[in-house]
Amino acid sequence: MDSLLIYISIAAMMVIIPGVDTMLLVKNTLAYGPKAGRFTVLGMAAGLSFWTLIAILGLSVVIAKSVVLFSIIKYLGAAYLIYLGIRSFFTKSMFSLKEIQSQANTPTKYSNQYNKSSFMQALLSNVLNPKTVLVYITIMPQFIDLNENVNQQLIMLAFILTLLAVCWFLTLVYVIDYAKKWLNNSKFQKAFQKSTGLILIGFGIKTGI
């Protein structure tokens, strides 16, 4: 029981510490509205579920031991983050609050496209993030009893991590959307969008080093 509480504390800290997921969530929620933010969270959960399946199949250890395969994932992830950063940096402007509200009230193929794009960004960001592999092969094993069913324990630990992430980021979506009423300023949005782009590029370069 004590070890489970320790794991929950560690997992909560990993989730709360700002990273790529936080940047994507803030960017998509401010740009396309809270629904896109929730689709971003869904993409994150899908990415974590992917690595849970990989871990259960035992492939995460294989990936970690294969320098070539691990490097491929690492550099693909870095390239994708840099791509997202450049795309965000050079986008002319975010939508205004009125435009977002108008799209929310009038569903179109464009709003669905933004939701799908937000989902795919978060999914690919997590799937192509080698740090996620390290969580499964370095942190989770510390809390697994080899005398018990390893896969069941792994699923439980992964579920806890995913649940914490979903709860935290859904809360952020609400906070961001609420604060957006005071952030509906074109200069602020432009500065934030470019800074977000630079941060994503920085994460990508750091990941690739």
Textual characterization of the structure:
The protein has 209 residues and is an all-alpha fold. Helix content is 85%, strand content 0%. It is built from 10 helices and no strands. α3 crosses α8. The longest helix has 34 residues. The N and C termini lie far apart (38 Å). 34% of the residues are buried. About 7% of the residues have low confidence.
Radius of gyration: 18 Å
What is the makeup of the main sheet?
Answer: none
The count of strands amounts to: 0
Task: List the secondary-structure elements in sequence, H or E.
Answer: HHHHHHHHHH
Shape: globular
The low-confidence parts are 93-107
What quaternary form is this? single chain
The average pLDDT is 76
Tally of individual helices: 10
The structural class is mainly alpha
State the end-to-end distance. Answer: 38 Å
User: Approximately what portion of the residues adopt beta-strand conformation?
Assistant: under 5%
User: Could you estimate the helical fraction of the residues in percent?
Assistant: over 70%
